[in-house]
Amino acid sequence: MKAWATICVVILMVAVAIPTVAGDKHNCSASAEDCLRKMQDKMEAKAWLGIETGETDSGFWAVKKVYLDSPAEKAGFKAGDVLIALNGVEMSKKNKEAYKKTAHKLVPGSKANYTVKRDGSKKQLEAQLGSVPREVMAQWIGEHMLDQHAPVRVASK
Q: pTM for the whole thing?
C-alpha cells in the first residue's frame, strides 16, 4: 500500500501530479474490470509532469526522481528540489485542497509554473505537461490491481 500512496502523490504532482487518481487509503470496492476502466480514463485525461516525490518534514514534497525525457526533465527539475508552489498556489500538506483544485485544472499540453527550492534559494521552472506514458500507466494500474484486486495467497511450504 505504501507504494500506491507514493504513486498517488506522483499523479497529483503530475498534474502536477497529485493524489487522486486511484484512491485514498481504503480498499477499492469496484470490480477489477470497472476499476481498470475508470483508472485508465482518469489517467488518460491527467497531465503528467514526470516526477516521484516524498513528503518533507515541513509539509512540502521533495522530488525523489525525475523521469527521463519527461516534461520535468525538460523544464530542469532535479532530484532534491522541494516543490513550493504551482501556478502561484502553495503546494503544502496544509494547503492541499487549494493545490488540488489548481492541479485538477491541468490537462496534457498545459503549461505550469512551479516554484521550487533548490540549494537554499527559490527557482522558477515552467513545464509543458504531457500525457501519462503508457508504461507508467501500466505500472500504476498493475500495482493497484495487485494490491487491491488480486486474491490473497498463503505461502505454501
A: 0.73
Is 121 in a helix, a strand, or coil? Answer: strand
Distances (CA, A) of 121 to 66, 75, 81, 84, 118: 20, 17, 10, 11, 6
For residue 122, the SS3 value is: strand
Cα–Cα distance between 150 and 130 in angstroms, integer? 31
C-alpha distances (whole Å) from 132 to each of 30, 50, 124, 137, 157 are 23, 8, 23, 6, 41
> The C-alpha cell of 105 is what?
485544472
**Residue-level pLDDT at 154:** 58
Rounded Cα distance between 17 and 11, Å, is 4
> Residue 144's pLDDT band (boundaries 50, 70, 90)?
confident
Please list the residues that pair with 121 across neighbouring strands. Answer: 118
CA nearest neighbour of 61 among 25, 107, 114, 127: 114
Task: Give the three cell numbers for residue 60.
Answer: 512540502
